[in-house]
Amino acid sequence: MFEPSASRCAEDHDFGGLCAKLAGLSGGAVMTALLRWQNDQGRRLRQEFTAPHLQPDGTVATNPNSLVDWLEKPRTDGTRIGTREEAVVLRECAEAAMDQRLGAVNNRDLHPENRQVINPGWLTSARAQRLSHGMVYR
């Protein structure tokens, strides 16, 4: 049976339910989002799904093949949760990459409407995951 108090707990920042912990992909974080464009009258004409893959140094790869390959396999939970300061920097980098895409598609008929973050996730590399579980492969 669904308990409303359980869902409130999962959405609580202290619980950590607002950001996924993902294993098996190197990097700092990954995010999914929708980018939207509208016409002069405010009517939505286009939207794209995007997945920025963020490295700890702030570089961003959008929809890389490594992420597509990673999504096709079963995964386990990660162990890493970044700091608030790290989250701010990585989010700013992701937003800059998304804004760059919004601007690149912009033309006489399409104007950036917004970007909507769907879900962010902290990444734990496969090696770090094995080490956290006491498994070291050489």
Characterization of the model:
The chain is of the alpha+beta class and 138 residues long. It has one domain. It is 31% helix and 30% strand. It is built from four helices and six strands. The protein has helices spanning 4-10, 65-71, 84-105, 126-132; strands spanning 20-23, 29-38, 44-50, 52-54, 60-62, 111-124. Strands 1, 2, 3, 4, 5 and 6 form a six-stranded mixed beta sheet that branches. A hairpin with a 5-residue loop joins strand 2 and strand 3 (44-50). The radius of gyration is 18 Å and the shape is elongated. The N and C termini lie far apart (46 Å). The model is unreliable at 1-7 and 126-138 (pLDDT under 50).
The portion of residues forming beta strands comes to 25-35%
Order of helices and strands: HEEEEEHHEH
Residue stretches low in confidence (pLDDT < 50, at least 5 long) are 1-7, 126-138
Q: Count the strands?
A: 6
The secondary-structure class comes to: alpha+beta
Please tell me the overall pLDDT. Answer: 82
Rg for CA atoms? 18 Å
Number of helices: 4
Number of spatially distinct domains? 1
Main β-sheet: number of strands, strand sense, barrel status? 6 strands, mixed
The end-to-end span amounts to 46 Å
Helix percentage range: 25-40%
Looking at the structure, what is the overall shape? elongated
